[in-house]
Amino acid sequence: MSFPHLLEPLDLGFTQLKNRVLMGSMHTGLEEEKGGFEKLAAFYKERALGGVGLIVTGGISPNFRGRLAPHASQLSFSWQVKKHKIVTDAVHDGGGKICMQILHAGRYGYHPFSQAPSKIKSPITPFTPSAMSARQVRGTIKDYASSAALAKKAGYDGVEVMGSEGYLINQFVSSRTNKRDDEWGGDFAKRARFPVEIVNAIREKVGQDFIIIFRLSMLDLVDNGSTWDEVVQLAKWLEESGVSIINTGIGWHEARVPTISTSVPRGAFSWVTEKLKSEVNLPLIATNRINTPEIGESIIASGQADMVSMARPFLADPDFVNKAAANQSEMINTCIGCNQACLDHTFALKRATCLVNPRACYETEINFLPTKNKKRIAVMGAGPAGMAFSVYAATRGHEVVLFEAKSEVGGQFNLARKIPGKEEFNETIRYFINQLALHKVELRLNTRLDASVLATEKFDEVVISSGVVPRAINLPGFDSPKVVDYQQVLSGQVEIGQKVALIGAGGIGFDMAHFLCEKESSTLQPDKWLKQWGIDKSYEHAGGLTEEAEHHPGREVYLLQRKTSKIGKGLGKTTGWIHRSVLKQHQVKTMTGVSYEKFDEQGLHITIDDKPQILAVDNVVLCAGQESNRTLLEEMKATGLPVHLIGGVDVAAELDAKRAIRQGAELAMAL
């Protein structure tokens, strides 16, 4: 067995988990959709069949005021049990176990009825909560216990009490948000009384043969957060109260430190779980940016934790555990931590899915059934769209020939993976290469598909996924060899000087600024990354924060845009602030409302607010968008064969691998 520690059973006394892998809590949006619990059942069952040891649902509120949003899910009444049983029956039918997460949003509630220990507004929500009365505090504790009892009635194997990420329980525990002077506030023992009473009440209601996981905030990453001594003391009190397992919580949602995005090193926070290991006798779960069986095995084998939690990796690949058990980790569709289709969707109140796996949360809607009409299909371009279509179409039984003019597959991913913090894109390329081979897609590298090929070989359909080309700008001096595009820079075709102006402040401009400023990726150096973001690994400061390390940018970079709107406005909702922070760390100078005039030996001539100025730069890099690469489109259409466009060649907006891969999947279903 390649991963003996990861795949070893875990005995909890009254029940046994078949391995050490937890599918962590994720809100999918299906919880609120009409007929969503049937879809949720299919989603979780597929993961249960995929071998995961224990599943935890997205957060379910114990009462109305605890909802995350006005129509978010809660479990408070007997009539609500029936729909939850659809999910638990499906998971048990798939051979799995499942816990329901109980989550009270507190001041993070996105509605005017939110409550918190004190009347203090959150910086990330528009509503100011009302302060709970002592009676309401006691009532909320009862609501947690009642919700857990209903969960047991619905067939759940346990509950996870959400005590981290800055939600209600965290708000009671921390002096940052708890300013009460009654029995629920003041010294730490009083602030911690709330979670302890919740666990006591739940255990009394559900008995001893029911899993209680407590998601403990081990590292708040906010000012005036918990001290390490407080974390340890609360863990010990929770153990005495009858918790079965303690899960690691990292960072409040309002923290200005990235915790799960792709730029976070793999397993970057397992050290804090290890720090608690000697303090309690309960199984501990390590979490955050654990996305391969190798990382999970290392964490458990080294004694840092007893289990590992992976949430989004199970969006990317429901068969993660089975593939690991079969020693086929190279076949796992690895989560790249991009947030684009999961968290960004959730915060936009859309159904979550996955950039690299568009079937995630669409298990009842996107399926690649065997075709009754086998076709021979020519595909032009082996970027994300072309590779995805080829694999999915071949899965259905079509004969697919994939043409790529370059010497390697990957398209724009080959450029993206060179950006510091985006090394995970290598994994997607690796996955598709293995899938192309598995499904016997004929791959022709260094071969351009044109009409002559179609004239000599018989094909039934043509799919064009030839991607994009950088948009050129026609201005005086822009024909200089010192004015280049982002593809030339990332592919190593040109040398760049120490002073650089970037034209275009979308995602490509941000990536280029990061690439030019950071010579060595801190993502690949965990200790350096922790210092970069001011994380105190020694935990001498409350909340685990210290001063950020000083940065010495490799270049002087200007990031320019024509628009007068905020730089980076169009970036991902959950990652945009990270990209802006990185540029600030590297002292990138940003300018908006820029008119470009010319480039000459003096530098780049621009105008802002009718005031001309010259940026004395060595190079200008064009990051001002791209155009569809439709060079051979008319030639393809002239063959008379059905022609389909997917990916960037269809729509050349900001590079969008999520749309490209999904288009490939949808077309493969349709043909």
From TrEMBL:
<dbReference type="InterPro" id="IPR001155">
    <property type="entry name" value="OxRdtase_FMN_N"/>
</dbReference>
<dbReference type="InterPro" id="IPR013785">
    <property type="entry name" value="Aldolase_TIM"/>
</dbReference>
<dbReference type="GO" id="GO:0033543">
    <property type="term" value="P:fatty acid beta-oxidation, unsaturated, even number, reductase/isomerase pathway"/>
</dbReference>
<feature type="domain" description="NADH:flavin oxidoreductase/NADH oxidase N-terminal">
    <location>
        <begin position="6"/>
        <end position="327"/>
    </location>
</feature>
<dbReference type="InterPro" id="IPR023753">
    <property type="entry name" value="FAD/NAD-binding_dom"/>
</dbReference>
<dbReference type="GO" id="GO:0051536">
    <property type="term" value="F:iron-sulfur cluster binding"/>
</dbReference>
<keyword id="KW-0285">Flavoprotein</keyword>
<keyword id="KW-0560">Oxidoreductase</keyword>
<dbReference type="InterPro" id="IPR036188">
    <property type="entry name" value="FAD/NAD-bd_sf"/>
</dbReference>
<dbReference type="GO" id="GO:0046872">
    <property type="term" value="F:metal ion binding"/>
</dbReference>
<dbReference type="GO" id="GO:0010181">
    <property type="term" value="F:FMN binding"/>
</dbReference>
<dbReference type="GO" id="GO:0008670">
    <property type="term" value="F:2,4-dienoyl-CoA reductase (NADPH) activity"/>
</dbReference>
<keyword id="KW-0411">Iron-sulfur</keyword>
<keyword id="KW-0408">Iron</keyword>
<dbReference type="InterPro" id="IPR051793">
    <property type="entry name" value="NADH:flavin_oxidoreductase"/>
</dbReference>
<keyword id="KW-0288">FMN</keyword>
<keyword id="KW-0479">Metal-binding</keyword>
<comment type="similarity">
    <text>In the N-terminal section; belongs to the NADH:flavin oxidoreductase/NADH oxidase family.</text>
</comment>
<dbReference type="Pfam" id="PF00724">
    <property type="entry name" value="Oxidored_FMN"/>
</dbReference>
<feature type="domain" description="FAD/NAD(P)-binding">
    <location>
        <begin position="376"/>
        <end position="653"/>
    </location>
</feature>
<protein>
    <submittedName>
        <fullName>2,4-dienoyl-CoA reductase</fullName>
        <ecNumber>1.3.1.34</ecNumber>
    </submittedName>
</protein>
<dbReference type="Pfam" id="PF07992">
    <property type="entry name" value="Pyr_redox_2"/>
</dbReference>
